[in-house]
Amino acid sequence: MKAEIIAVGTELLLGQIVNTNAQYLSRELASMGIDVYYQTVVGDNMERLKEALRLSSGRADIVLLSGGLGPTQDDLTKDALASYMNRSLHIDRMAMDRVERFFHDRGSVMTENNRRQALAIEGGTPLPNETGLAVGNAISFEGTHYIVLPGPPKELIPMFEQEAKPWLLQHVLTGELPIYSKMLKFAGIGESALDQRLEDLITAQTDPTIALYAKEGEVTVRISTKAASESEAMVRLNELETRIQERGPEFMYANEDVPIEKVIVDLMADRSWTLSAAESCTGGLVAEALTSIPGSASMFLGGIICYTNQIKEKLVHIPHALLEGDDAPGAVSAEVAEALADHVRMVTDSDFGLSVTGVAGPGYAERKPVGLVYIGLSERGKETEVHELHLQGNRETIRLRATKALLYRLWQRLVASKQA
Amino acid sequence: MKAEIIAVGTELLLGQIVNTNAQYLSRELASMGIDVYYQTVVGDNMERLKEALRLSSGRADIVLLSGGLGPTQDDLTKDALASYMNRSLHIDRMAMDRVERFFHDRGSVMTENNRRQALAIEGGTPLPNETGLAVGNAISFEGTHYIVLPGPPKELIPMFEQEAKPWLLQHVLTGELPIYSKMLKFAGIGESALDQRLEDLITAQTDPTIALYAKEGEVTVRISTKAASESEAMVRLNELETRIQERGPEFMYANEDVPIEKVIVDLMADRSWTLSAAESCTGGLVAEALTSIPGSASMFLGGIICYTNQIKEKLVHIPHALLEGDDAPGAVSAEVAEALADHVRMVTDSDFGLSVTGVAGPGYAERKPVGLVYIGLSERGKETEVHELHLQGNRETIRLRATKALLYRLWQRLVASKQA
Predict the structure, then answer these.
(1) Residues B351-373: pLDDT tens digits?
(2) Nearest partner of A358 among A348, A369, A349, judged by Cα
(3) Contact, B220 vs B213, CB < 8 A?
(4) Which positions, given as ranges, span the membrane (chains A, B) (predicted)?
(5) What is the mean pLDDT of residues A151-175?
(6) Of B224, B254, B284, the domain-final residue
(7) What CA–CA distance (Å, rounded) separates A242 from B270?
(8) Which residues of B touch A287 (CB under 8 A)?
(9) Residues A128, A243 within the same domain
(10) What is the pLDDT, as a whole number, of residue A73?
(11) Can you say whether residue B193 is alpha, beta or left, with left for phi > 0 and alpha for psi between -120 and 50 degrees?
């Protein structure tokens, strides 16, 4: 079953709003096992709208239209669809009652153009709008099924959920198998390196299917299958998950769609472990990532952003001799990363201490190159580990990559310590 | 001049990501006076991608493609375009050097598939990628101009701005009057409130045009005009800027597209003022925003993320009696916000001290409601100001809004102190 989404609205083509409806509808259709082949955005223009309908009818079984149901002359979606099908429009009595009641309740006069919001296409099923005034429509024509939805997400989402989805399940999807997915999350490995490790599995994929996506230092592998029941799907998905995990067990940190900091917070809360961080070049990014997770208050005690040498000395007790002087390694060094991680752990009396110090740029510091970063990880009673990173990118990218690298090392350490 | 935007990626059709690139590119094209008639999304599929190219070529003068330039077998955009034009692909030497250097600098082995990221189409202009590895392309064929851009916004935006836009201006838009814009930036006021203050100007707009965009606690007002010369444009834009600024001088912090933290860093550097921050519920967001600005090292001395009461006592010297006990105001209180701002300023010996303490949720703390936040601002030799905020939204939104509110107050204070 192939579907296409057509969003109608010049405000989308001007870039005034982002097309979140297409994302919502795509995700919903995917979860129903319907493949979306195209998303299209077209303006409030009768000819181009009818052209988009003509095209979509030739290539899709289901066409979802969003937007263009309002009261103004610009709102053309139902007119265009009716004209395309050579059908007439009529006032839907229930929808009209709702429009009239709305104006009556507010004590205001309904202008004539508001009647347009109650228009329905001859032979179709009106879809009531619980959160707005414009009625939706569901209608089949020449083998293609059309669903007409309002543009505002707070109207579109409830109408899809309560009206359009049940209509599709009852009239169109009888007998189709639902689709089930699992998201496998990787860190510490790039998209292309993971792609190569999985190359034979990806090439041979039929069912389940495998897809890779990279985002901000994490790679997501989505595996999907159509099945009659969840348990049947899970047998296939779990079997493939195991084969994928074997290709890089040291990189796969979750089998659900969560960031690595969520896994870290859960692992630490589970053991009542506590954490602190001393950050120089990341300026709070590490703390911010961890504290973005609800429940982090139980494990993240606090952090020190020691941007200057004075603060490194005063708040994290880094010896002056390490920071300044001809023979000093300097603030951007393995020695200072180690001391920062150890000292922030001791100052806050936490089980684990993290540190980052480096040159985020633009411009070098201490005659050290942009992208040189040291990360430290201290654990009570264990040896402190320090890693030297050479990162590419601009200031923002270097700070983000340093943060992700540190969180990845922490996750690895927590897994090892948990097993110990 | 008609344009069409084609975003390539199955992750868009599955609804895993929202198509923000289409919004960005539509807005940029509109600002250049180019009409976007269609946005299309198509999956990583050779046949459908070529079909989308065939369609767009028939109806657009300019086609912008985004996504599908990565190293994996799914990344087909350049292959499809080259095949559509019957042209070959070759390795762009500069792009290949960049890919090789990337792996060399990391001390890792480049896998063979990464060569794909350096592919360019015969006869086209390679567009360098300053923030990533995949090279872009600009190429004209049978009267249509194609621009190929990478999918990640942090690569697409700089490449459009620095490479594609100049190419379009030079090769395609010759003879058109150039468009000049100014961005007026507002903080501390919502989009709809600002919209109302500017209502008569917006209604009467012909030339220059006025457009409002809201994003993360800031509102941008973009004013644009077409003119034969920059000086002619600036006369019109500056006149309108003055009229707009008069509607809310206490909210307009810049007349160029910069975040408020950039204005803060510049103002402080100019006076050699220094700053520190003690953050509880924002967990590093304030420090992160400030340190994201190059040059912030000269004014931001450091920060303390005091997530627990123990850390508030130990590192910021908040009296135990303020934090705990039956009569204590508690960590989320005006008293603690004031003490945090004062003490972090004294501990770090900075001119200004900032503080945030509140309930970001989910779930209340100290029997105080989610969204209750206190922000403090301490200045050497002046009275400390504290504001009580009642913020709406989820954890992420509350943290972000608290950060923006504090930065807005700091900017106001700096402007006042500068004039004093």
Answers:
(1) 999 999 999 988 777 789 999 99
(2) A369
(3) yes
(4) none
(5) 92
(6) B254
(7) 58
(8) 283-284, 305
(9) no
(10) 76
(11) alpha
CA of A280 to nearest chain B CA: how many angstroms apart?
9
Which residue, of B171, B192, B209, is where some domain finishes?
B171
Q: Are residues B379 and B273 in the same domain?
A: yes
Are B261 and B290 in contact by the 8 Å Cβ rule? The answer is: yes
Give the domain CATH number at B79: 3.40.980.10
Each residue's pLDDT tens digit, B238-276: 999 999 999 999 999 999 989 999 999 999 999 999 999
Distance CA A392, CA B98 (A): 11
Cα(B353)–Cα(B409) distance, rounded to whole angstroms? Answer: 12
- State ipTM: 0.74
Pair (B70, B97) in one structural domain: yes
Least-confidence region, from B37-51, B169-183, B320-334: B169-183
In the block, residue with structure tokens 């202008």: A111
- The model's pLDDT over B170-222, given as tens digits with 9 standing for 90+, comes to 999 887 777 788 999 999 988 778 888 888 888 787 888 887 777 767 888 98
Which of A12, A28, A39, A216 is most worth mutating to test chain B (most B CB atoms within 10 A of its CB)?
A: A39
Nearest to A18 among B11, B20, B48 (CB): B20
Asked if A223 and A182 touch (Cβ cutoff 8 Å), the reply is: yes
Q: How many residues make up chain A in this entry?
A: 420
Find the CB nearest B16 among A48, A192, A213.
A213
Q: Residues A235, A363: one domain?
A: no
Q: Give the mean pLDDT of chain A.
A: 92
Contact: B15, A37; criterion CB under 8 Å: no
Axis-axis angle for helices B309-316, B334-348 (nearest 10): 40
User: Which residue of chain A is at minimal alpha-carbon distance from B278?
Assistant: A304
Show the CA angle centred on residue A96, arms to residues A91 and A100, nearest 5°.
145
Cβ within 8 Å, pair A394-B131: yes
Q: Which of B30, B107, B348 has the CB atom closest to A15's CB atom?
A: B30
Number of domains in chain A: 3
- Residue B289's pLDDT is 96
Q: How far is A93 from chain B (nearest CA, A)?
A: 34
Give me the phi and psi of B5, to 5 degrees please. -115, 125
Expressed as residue numbers, the domain containing B211 is 179-254
pLDDT tens column, B134-144: 999 999 999 99
Confidence at residue A175, expressed as pLDDT on a 0 to 100 scale = 75
Helix (H, G, I), strand (E, B) or coil at A112: helix
Cβ contact B163:B154 at 8 Å:
no
pLDDT band at A377 (very low <50, low <70, confident <90, very high): very high
Distance CA B306, CA B311 (A): 5
Same domain, A365 and A306: yes
- Please indicate whether, in this complex, the C-beta atoms of B26 and A14 are within 8 angstroms of each other: yes
A365: pLDDT strictly greater than 80: no
Same domain, A163 and A198: no
Q: Enumerate residues 6+ apart whose C-beta is below 8 A from A86.
A: none
* A39–B19 C-beta distance less than 8 A: yes
B249 and B290 co-located in one domain = no
Indicate the residue of B12, B290, B362 with minimum beta-carbon distance to A39.
Answer: B12
Chain B nearest C-alpha distance from A7 (Å)? 9
pLDDT digits (tens, 9 = 90+) for A91-143: 999 999 999 998 888 777 888 888 999 999 999 999 999 988 999 999 999 99
Chain B residue at shortest CA distance from A392? B102
Task: Pick the closest to residue A148 from A71, A59, A53, A55 (CA basis).
Answer: A53
Same domain, B183 and B301: no
State whether A13 and B113 contact (CB < 8 Å).
no
Higher pLDDT pick, B347 / A362: B347
- Check residue B226 and give its pLDDT: 84
Q: Do β-strands B352-358 and A385-390 pair in parallel, antiparallel, or remain unpaired?
A: unpaired
